[in-house]
Design goal:
- The chain has 9 helices and 11 strands.
- It has 276 residues and is α+β, with helices and mostly antiparallel strands.
- It has 2 domains: 82 residues, Phosphorylase Kinase, domain 1 (2-Layer Sandwich), CATH 3.30.200; 174 residues, Transferase(Phosphotransferase), domain 1.
- The strands form 3 sheets. Strands 1-2-3-4-6-5 form a 6-stranded antiparallel β-sheet, with helices on one face.
- The longest helix has 19 residues.
- The radius of gyration is 20 Å and the shape is globular.
């Protein structure tokens, strides 16, 4: 059932449609009781069944303990006037929308660290996201990034016919074969960082150097480039095992990650070290 502007669903008054995907429609809405704006994710009617609703409630319970500044909490996940809806805080925009405009290098580092912090928090609790993509990174004021769709993506994969288990384009090779792990999330982070730093999204067979490589090495320290390259290894055993390991590598090189412009060229360090 499509919702219209100014229509009410329980205590929520619809403002506008934000996005439509293969699984659900997302609306901005006003919580007329709490007096706040929220995001309302409404799955397509034809994909829902009692079993799917039970799965959603189970996943919402699993995601509830993920209390972290960089993870978007679910306010509610339940039926409202016969319509199932997932309610979260409303951000300014998604990273997908932000990537349509120039992204400064310092901002890229801010987003990268927050993403790795969120994923580290989840991985330490043995939770794999499996659907890292710009649309699931929600931006709030003061450059705060929150990772969304824990659990929701897992249930969506059961109801929508897809190749593998995730979003094509940001999926690790082994995940496409139905064998996701924490290393698969690391690979997706590598793809996100590569796109943010070069404007290019690498594709299979992921052979180095990839499109945009020259832009990457011109603007970023060799250690930062090596970190991304390690995250994007096709052989999962050669990647960081967890987001925590990648975060530690990132924090070691963060202060020198950006190469400064000097005149018509970039200042290149001569002793850049690889990430171990």
């Amino acid at each position: 059932m499509a919702l219209r502007a100014r229509q009410k669903l329980g205590k929520y008054r619809i403002h506008r449609r934000l996005a439509t995907g293969g699984f659900a429609v997302v609306y901005s809405a006003r919580d007329t009781v709490e007096g706040i704006d929220v995001a309302l994710k409404v799955p397509h009617d034809h994909l829902l069944s009692r079993g799917v609703l039970d799965d959603f409630k189970k996943e919402a319970r699993l995601a509830a303990p993920l209390d972290h500044p960089n993870i978007l909490p679910i306010k509610t996940a339940d039926e409202v006037e016969g319509q199932f809806a997932i309610v979260t805080r409303l951000g300014k925009e998604t990273l997908a929308e932000r990537l349509t405009r120039r992204l400064g290098k310092k901002t890229i580092l801010v987003y990268a660290e927050q993403l790795l912090q969120a994923l580290t928090f989840a991985h330490r609790r043995r939770i794999i996201h499996c659907d890292l993509k710009p649309e699931n990174l929600i931006l709030f004021p003061d450059n705060q990034l929150r990772l969304a769709d824990f659990g929701i993506a897992k249930v969506a994969r059961k109801t929508v016919s897809t190749s593998g288990s995730g979003t094509i384009g940001y999926m690790a090779p082994e995940q496409a074969m139905g064998k996701p792990s924490m290393r698969s999330d690391v690979f997706s982070v590598g793809l996100l960082l590569y796109r943010m730093t070069t404007g290019e999204l690498p594709r299979w067979p992921f052979r180095w150097p990839m499109p945009g490589h020259e832009r990457l090495v011109r603007g970023w320290h060799p250690a930062f480039v090596a970190m991304i390259r390690k995250a994007l290894q096709v052989d999962e055993r050669r990647r960081f095992a967890t987001a925590s390991q990648m975060l530690e590598a990132f924090q070691r090189i963060r202060s020198r990650a950006i190469l400064e412009d000097r005149g018509n060229g970039n200042r290149r360090p001569t002793n850049g070290q690889a990430v171990c």
